[in-house]
Write a structure and sequence with these properties.
By secondary structure, the protein is mostly helical. The chain has one domain. The chain has helices spanning about 5-30, 45-75. It is elongated, with a radius of gyration of 15 Å.
């Protein structure tokens, strides 16, 4: 994986999943939307908050790890 496009694609996929599973449930609850593929919205009240926040934190951590790996791979 020494190609920058591979890292960018992986970053995009992680960001999309983080937004869809982490941020969309909060917006959906505010506006009354019910996204079928947003898994946290299928959980009861306290659990969906925890899962959505965890999805955001995991996505941010993965994006940071991917960015560091991209910098290491491209500097070599």
């Amino acid at each position: 994986m020494s190609d920058a496009k591979t890292y960018d694609g992986l970053s995009g996929l992680v960001a999309l999943a983080g937004i869809h599973e982490g941020i969309v449930p909060f917006i959906g609850k505010i506006f009354g939307w019910h996204q079928f593929l947003s898994l946290p919205l299928h959980l009861p009240a306290p659990a969906w908050w925890i899962v959505s926040i965890a999805a955001i934190v995991v996505a941010l951590a993965l994006l940071e790890m991917i960015d560091q790996a991209k910098k290491r791979a491209l500097s070599e």
